[in-house]
Amino acid sequence: MTAIRLTVLGSGTSVGVPTIGCHCDVCTSPDPRDKRLRPSVLLEYDGRVVLIDTTPDFRQQMLRLQIPRLDAILYTHSHADHILGLDDVRPFNFYQQGTIPIFAAPDTLEVVQRVFSYIFATGETESSRPRISVNRLDGSPFNLFGLEFQPIRLKHGRGITLGYRFGRCAYLTDHSDIPPESLAQLRGLDVLFLDALRHKPHPTHSTVERSLQYVEQLAPRRAYFTHISHDLAHVQTESLLPPHVHLAYDGLVLEISNDPPIDLIKLHLNQPTSEPSALTIGNFDGTHLAHQQLFRRVARHGRERQLVPAVLTFDPHPTRVLSPDRAPKLLSTHEQRAARMADFGLEKVFVLPFTKELSQLEPRQFIEQILVEQLNAKLIVIGANFRFGRKQAGNVAMLQEEGLRLGFAVEVVNEFVHRGEAVSSSLVRRLLEQGDAAKAARYLGRFYRLTGRVVAGFGIGKEQTVPTLNLDWGDALLPRNGVYVTRTTCVDTGRVWQSITNVGVRPTFQGEALTVETFLLEALVPPSPHRIEVEFLHWVRAERRFADPAALKAQIFRDVGRAKSWYRHADRAARRVH
After folding, report:
1. Based on the number of CB atoms within 10 Å of its own CB, is 462 exposed (0-12), middle (13-18) or buried (19 or more)?
2. Domain topology for 263-418
3. pLDDT (tens digit, 9 = 90+) per residue, 16-48?
């Protein structure tokens, strides 16, 4: 797909700027960027036009930009400043000779159908009316003309609104808070739009200061504030923001690339790179909370010092070369790690092949030849226990000393402790080997997942118990044998299912080989997935042998009941929190 062209149609509040009856400096400003219609954006890609919200200014916005067509409308919520322009889609119906689909949460659609009841009334009418088809969103991603949209649940005072992520951009307007599970959906962005009403706190909207905290946490390459009141003058406010953060304005046009968010580069000895970098170094298996602390520091320093935020890592894991019998099973592949690093704003991952030759480099040779000459490191962020070079003779003090001599800075980050435990890849592996998926997730910052191809099983489940998707997990670490509540995602389409998964050897059928078998809690609508990702959410029970397939089948349905109960409880807990 080609790049997305995003146009800001409106960047103001529910009353717009200038505000009726107000003669403040912003409302009377001659700067066109201080004139703000109600908030909305337009997306153009592959010849399609998708709108987010039909504001009361919709007609004016369409005429101003001479928009020739409209293919779909997404709604964030049901407030008047986001829906009242819907009637003005009629000309598009005339020209396109067809209906226009709208997408929204059920409560928003209920209000739209009540406010515009004449649109949805049955029977003939003498007057023209918009021709609309209704699509209810349940939080799952959906595809529009080849582009996936992920609804993002937001808190708007006591209410709930939706933002949308599409490609490497997310548009969030009208929010006071972003729940933790939604923050997890906003990593690796090129562009992030956030509500920033003013400086003074407001019960239903974010402030400039709060949204700057979100920018720091999510590390997008560019951020734009919208839903702006007349308390904020464009020039004055923009001058106080970090270089990569801006106030949006009506008519702003952005080209949003769909290129991969991070470069994975295989490095060879004596192969120099040109751009100065901010760098962290390690294996980063699992990209857990301690690793994430380093990634955030590198990304922030990169932005502040105009350096490329990067990682140096090794393949294979050094233990596999130096002591193969002690080499651990890995929690993630380099590709998975790179994707996670991109979530925190890193731009390059340098993968250095780890060989016996490399292991013999003296610490100062490693610094000079690799960190300085090859990677042009100007800032290095490392943990307090960092060791490197032949026989791990290099330490933090040596790195700092060489930095003074060779012209790079060193920042040392203390051990990361969460809930009283030092976070490490070894700790996460141990928890997974014990079957404690929920506790492992605390330290990973997300649920543990396996990704791979769906492969043919033995045909037993389909004939004697229940049909399953069988996963080829490659060389990744398997959690303890047993049954888990899981979430399964089709890698190619983004479809998501609640599921249960058995890790084990199928003792009821005298199996010996390990398998990972997933049963979906809802019927699988074709096409069947070719690649899936299975997230391990909660331990259910250990694997055991049953007297016959019928007994196993009965147990599977009891497991399904427990999984559905777990999901209901998790949903209620999320609603209580948000």
Report:
1. exposed
2. Rossmann fold (3.40.50)
3. 999 999 999 999 999 999 999 999 999 999 889
